[in-house]
Amino acid sequence: MTGRTTFFISLFIALLAIVSPSKASPWVGTVDKQLHYDLQTLQEWGYLDATVITYPVPWRGVADQIMKLDIAKMPNIPKQAAQRLDHYLYLQKQQKRRTFLEIQGATSEPRLTSLDGVEDVKASVKITNEFYWQRFSAQLSVNYQSGGKKNLDNSFLAYQFGEWNLRAGAIDQWWGPGQSSSLILSNNARPIPTLALSRSSATRSESPWLSWLGPWYLTSQIGRLEEDRAVPNTNLLLNRFTFSPLKRLEIGASWAVMWGGEGNPSGLSALLDVVTFQEVCLRRESCTKDQLTKAGNHLAGYDIKYSFEVFNRPISIYAQRIGEDSKSGIRITDNANLVGLSTYIGNAKVYLETSDTNISCGGDDDTSVNCFYENGTYSSGYRYRNRVIGSTFDSDAKQLTLGTNIRFEGGALAEVILRVAELNKDGTRPSPVLTDAVTEDLVQVSGFYQRPFGNWLLKAGGSIESRDLVDQGSEVDALLYLNATYAFD
Q: What does the alpha-carbon distance between residue 221 and residue 25 come to, in Å, rounded to a whole number?
C-alpha cells in the first residue's frame, strides 16, 4: 500500500479516536445503493416529501418521515421500500460501527456501468467500516483490486454543523433523474476526491425565508483530478442545487468546471476568473482578442422530474439538458439531452430512457461533432482515470435504454437492462468507451439477481452484447460476475 494511502488510513483512525459516538450515517445508500431506489419509490408514490434526484440523499429529514409511515396500510411496492429503509435505520440505532466485507469476481472488465451495476474491475476485495460519532461520521473503505491496485474509493470523513455538512473524501455520486446514466456526474468513473460543503437535509427548511422552495438540497465541491493526464492535477469545481416547489415535482441545476492544473493559473484569482466567466490568455505571453479563451472548461444545465398517478400507479417523466462551451457570455451552445419515462407494473419499476451526446460543436448551424466532454486546453476531456465523469456512453453517442427493477418478498430483487447504442458514428476522435474500433453499433442485455442470506448479500449477474464494428465485422461478447457482501454483527 502506498505511503499516501497509509497516511489517510492513519488520519482516519486518529480523528475517530478523539470523538464520541453518534446516531447515524449522513447519507442513504453509501454501502447499498438499492436504498436510493427505495427513496425514489417512496417519493414517486407520494409517501416522501423530499428531493431525491441527487445521490446520495442525506438521512436527516427523510429518516423522520420514514419512521412516521403507517407501513402496514401501504401498497406492496412502496411498503417493501419502506420496510427496507426502516430496517436499515433500526440497524444504525443498534450499532455505532458497522463493518462490511465485499468480494467480487468477473470474467472481464465491463465497459458500461449503472448506479448499482458491476464495478469496472475483474476482481476486488473491499473492507468497509462505517463510524458514527456525535457530529462526526466516517466511512473507511480499503479496496484491493486485480493487478495489485489499491485505493480508498468511497471513503470519507464528515462533520455536521446546523443544517450543513462538511465532507472530505471520494464517494460515488449521481446527479439527475436518469436511471441509466447522468450527463454531468455519475459513478461511471471512479469517485473523485473532493472537499464538499452540502446541506445536511433534502427536506423542507424550517426557515420562513426558504420554506417557499419546498424540499431543497445544495452541494458545492472542489476536487482534483489525477496526475496522469494531459494537464496533470486539473482542479474540478462541482455545484448542484435541487428543489421541489410542488409535491412530486423536482427541479435541479448543475454546474461543473475544470480549471487550473499544471501550466495553468490555479490560485484564488484564477478561480475568481472561472466563476465570473472571464476570458483569459493561456500559455502565451500575450493574446489577441481572437486568442482569448474562457477561463476553465464549463459544463452546466438543468433537469426536471414530475410524477403523477394513473389508475393508482405513479408515472414519472423526466429530462436533463447539459451544455458545454459558449460562443459569448454564458450562452451555452453545445447541449446534450436525456429524456425518460418510468412507471410500475406489478412488482417492477420499468423505465424507457434515451440520450444523445452526438451534438454539433457550435450550435444548430454547425455540423461538426466530437466536442462534448472534449476541450482544447484539457485534451484528456471531462474524464477521470480514462472514464468519462458523466454519461457511461461517453461522447458522440446516441442510446436507447429499456430497464426494469423487480422486487420480491424477503428482500430479493432482479434488474434487467436492454441498451441499444450508436457510438461515434463519424468514426473520428473515438472516446475511451470504444475499445476495438472507431465506431460501433451496440446491443447489450445485462442484469443481475440479488438476495440476502443471513448476514450475506449475494449478487449474480452478467451481460451479453452484440457489437457491429466498422471494417471488422460483428462479434458477441459476454460477461459474468458474482458479488458477495458480508455484514459483521
A: 20
